[in-house]
Amino acid sequence: MKIKNVEVFVCCPGRNFVTVKVVTDDGVHGLGDATVNGREMAVVAYLKEHVVPCLIGRDAHAIEDVWQYLYRGTYWRRGPITMAAIAAIDMALWDIKGKVAGLPLYQLLGGKSRRGVTLYAHANGENVDDTIDKAEALVSQGFKAIRLQSAIPGLPVTYGVLGDKKDYYDMQGNRPLPPEETWSTQKYFNMIEGLFKEARERLGRDIHLVHDVHSRLTPIESARLGKLLEKYELLFLEDASMAENQQSYDVIRQHTSIPLAIGETYNSLWDCKYLIENQLIDYIRVAATHGGGVTAMKRIADFAAIYNVKTAPHGAPDLSPICFAAHMHLDICTPNFGIQEFVGFGNEQIRRVFQHDTRLEDGMAYLSDAPGLGVEYDESAASDYPYKRSYLPVSRLEDGTLWNW
Ligand code: EZ4
Ligand code: CO
Questions:
Q1: CATH 3.20.20.120 occupies which residues in the chain?
Q2: Best exposed site among 122, 220, 229, 295 by fewest CB in 10 Å?
Q3: Which of these CATH numbers, 3.20.20.120, 3.40.350.10, 3.40.50.150, 3.40.50.1220, describes 108-371?
Q4: Ligand approaching nearest to the C-alpha of 237
Q5: What is the pLDDT of residues 356-391, one digit of tens each?
Q6: 214 catalytic residue (yes or no)
Q7: CA of 375 to the centre of ligand 1 (A)
Q8: Ligand 1 atom nearest 159 alpha carbon
């Protein structure tokens, strides 16, 4: 079965998504997600100009060889653009293999290790009370794990908080130029402990709590935060510090027993290797789209398992439902799966374009038994929503210094 054709689509049903469709000479097709938020067209060009010509005529079943050909064979390895392109092709080939076998992807990966996929949902509030109100609403919907983010008194806009926007799609969609936000570590520290104190008072101690620092603290500040929050028993603290220098997590780990999670911007096992093998983290959060697809995710999970590190794949709104499906198939099989981030199935336009039959119940997701990934892409619906240039925000300290967003 040979690869006959590869198409690359970009659509904007509220936000941009890059979707790859691989078609075989038998007429089977597979789908992959290649979305890199704010840099979508770089992946499109990489795929169309450099990847697709090399794939035509190749064996669609030789997933590992195609992966190696595009990674090892490229010389310029790694990085988000390259790895998103490889990831999308890899997902599409797994989708094809499942469709040919007549089996959902999780069966090809070894079968189910658990009943369903436990999710953590997001509560984003304008202040501490509002955040906990939203968390309570999620608990009443059945969620057992919740990420808490609150606006910071004294700062106009904060990561993760919707402000006057009605949802993530309204917030992140269609920005002609990057908006600017302001950060103050001191103002953040003035707010953060109160959020978790209030959360434990109102939600009790059975609900799992998560918080995303979004890499805004230095390692020693993260250590201080970890110590401050230890008594609230978080499931994990996410992206406490940037880790281009992975040794910076030695500093955090020396000071606090708060569980740590990182990896949503990582592109390969090599990016997480030191953190995992030195047991400096507890959850690895690489996404299938940004880390090289199903093939790469499986390798990362197996490596992490040796060191008691669990997986907690990134589940942001800028990963398409195709990536989310790939995560669910991996989550249900992986013995060291921890938890899956979840922000809902998107707005009405997204659900028109990406069709799937995933069921939610009691804070868990259940896959359908459709063969392959189980997602279909409605090309004609997608063509109603053309690409629009859009950016993530940038962040500055109060004196104007550019900071991590
Ligand atoms: O800011 O995916 O945990 N989730 C996150 C995300 C990221 C976006 C960036 O494109 O940190 O919301
Ligand atoms: Co995050």
A1: 108-371
A2: 220
A3: 3.20.20.120
A4: 2
A5: 999 999 999 999 999 999 999 999 999 999 999 999
A6: yes
A7: 22
A8: 1
Is residue 168 pLDDT above 80, yes or no? Answer: no
| Coil, helix or strand at residue 81 | helix
Alpha carbon distance 360, 272 (integer Å)? 31
Confidence of residue 159 (pLDDT cuts 50, 70, 90): confident
Which entry of 208, 214, 290, 327 is annotated as an active-site residue? 214
Nearest atom, ligand 1, residue 160 CA: 12
Numbered ranges of CATH 3.30.390.10 in the chain:
3-103
Angle at CA of residue 160, ends 155 and 394, nearest 5°: 65
CATH of 3-103, picked from 3.30.470.30, 1.10.630.10, 2.60.120.10, 3.30.390.10, is 3.30.390.10
Containing 43, the helix (H) or strand (E) segment is helix 40-45
Report phi then psi at 34, rounded to 5: -125, 30
Count other C-beta atoms under 10 Å from residue 226's C-beta.
22
Give dist(CA 199, CA 245) in Å, integer: 33
Q: Tell me, what's the pLDDT at 156?
A: 86
Find the catalytic residue in 71, 159, 266, 377. 159
Distances in Å between the Cα of 33 and the Cα atoms of 102, 254, 282, 289 are 22, 38, 27, 6
Q: Say which amino acid occupies 35.
A: T
Q: Which parts of 102-207 fold into alpha helices (H)?
A: 105-108, 128-140, 168-172, 185-203
Mean pLDDT, the chain, rounded, equals 96
pLDDT of residue 172: 61
Cβ–Cβ under 8 Å, residues 93 and 22 = yes
In tens, the pLDDT along 202-226 reads: 999 999 999 999 999 999 999 999 9
pLDDT-based confidence at 309, cuts 50/70/90?
A: very high
CA distance to 68, 293, 393, per residue, from 154 (Å): 50, 41, 19
pTM across the whole model: 0.97
* Residue 27: how many other CB atoms lie within 10 Å: 8
